Amino acid sequence: MPRARRRLALLLPGVFALAASPALVQEVEHEPRDQIVLSGDVRVERGEDVGEVVVLLGRVQVAGVAHGDVVVLDGEISVTGQVSGSVVSVDGPVTIGPDAQIGGDVIARDRVRIAEGARIGGEVRDGTAFTFRTPVALFGPFAAWFALAISTLGLGGLLTLVAPRGVEALAAAARTALWSSLGWGLAAFVGLPVLGTLAVVSLVGLPFGLGVLFGLLLVYSLGFAGCAFALGRGIVREPRSRWLALGLGWAILAALAAVPFGGGFVWFAGAVYGLGAATVAIWRARGVGGRHRPGAMIVERAMQEEGTGI
Fold first, then answer.
1. C-alpha distances in Å from residue 251, one per residue of 109, 132, 150, 153
2. Model pLDDT, residue 95
3. Residue 288 carries which DSSP code?
4. Which of 42, 126, 189, 226 is 20 to 30 A from 285, alpha carbon to alpha carbon?
5. Could you tell me how many helices (H) and strands (E) the chain has, helices first?
6. Which strand ranges, in their side-by-side order, compose the sheet holding 119-120?
7. Which of helix, strand or coil describes residue 239?
8. How many other C-beta atoms can be found within 10 angstroms of the C-beta atom of residue 291?
9. What is the full DSSP assignment across 95-141?
10. Alpha-carbon dihedral of residues 144, 150, 152, 156, nearest 10 degrees?
11. pLDDT at 203 exceeding the cut of 60
12. Are residues 176 and 283 in contact, defined by beta-carbon separation less than 8 angstroms?
């Protein structure tokens, strides 16, 4: 009993000090942040800790602690610290230092160099030929983000190629009719699934309702792609390249969508605004005679109606 009391007397001051120090409480509650980079290098210095590390094009150097996986699509990985998960380089070499600790596997398409003294909990495989499904599976929680980013880039490119004047009209509507685009976009985002459900329930419009419901993801993705072009065109003005505008707008939205707990909102906002801007552009095209008039007149009229909505 006396020994237990002495231990209790020694522990209580520390407990009260911890409870009274907000800085210490915040440090205890600190969660490592994920590092997601489209193009560039990631360096985790000694004494730093991060969560997952995902790089599409670049180099990763881990001297500190990575609490998740380290995945590079095209680039080199160097680890001299600790990685709790696996280390994967889809197209590039991997170098493991003498004091490195890897909890999972080490997989690379190119050569894997492991210094003496390194500790690896899983398998080591170099010269691995990755199939189509393997890179997607390796992204883990970022698989949805990766799929959305690549698919919307493809859709945006298709829209720009097939309907260049249409995407210019959409960008003009997004720039000149902010509130109308938001309102119509929200109405379309909510109204389309409601319309499809009512058509299915009525049985008379069953084929139409099923078509609407099955096509919702495509429609929303098209709205997000249109928003990406409009955002890029707001920065890269005419007559500069449409492709540059699309690439810049897509890169910004993809980077914002990769932020933890914010990706869903970014996707929702982009889809809503893109759908609304497309609706406004279609209405304006109808007002000037639709396809029987040159597309340039539609854009010119949209510029003249700045701030007036539809």
1. 27, 23, 11, 9
2. 92
3. T
4. 189
5. 11, 16
6. 49-50, 65-66, 82-83, 101-102, 119-120
7. coil
8. 9
9. EE-TT-EESS-EEESS-EEE-TT-EESS-EE-S----SHHHHHHTGG
10. 180
11. yes
12. no
Cα separation, 246 vs 161, in Å, equals 11
Which residue reads 């004091």 in tokens? Answer: 99
More confident residue, 292 or 259: 259
Q: What is the pLDDT, as a whole number, of residue 83?
A: 94
Say how many C-beta atoms besides its own lie within 10 A of residue 230's C-beta: 27
Say if residue 82's pLDDT is above 90: yes
Percentage above 70 pLDDT, the chain: 77
Q: Which of 83, 249, 274 is nearest to 166 (CA)?
A: 274
CA angle centred on 135, ends 131 and 140, rounded to 5°? 140
State pLDDT tens for residues 165-175.
989 999 999 88
250-264: b or e for each residue (b if 16 or more CB lie within 10 Å)?
bbebbeebbeeeebe
Rg (CA), the chain: 26
pLDDT in tens, 9-45: 444 444 444 444 444 444 444 678 888 887 788 999 9
Domain ranges of the chain: 35-138, 142-304
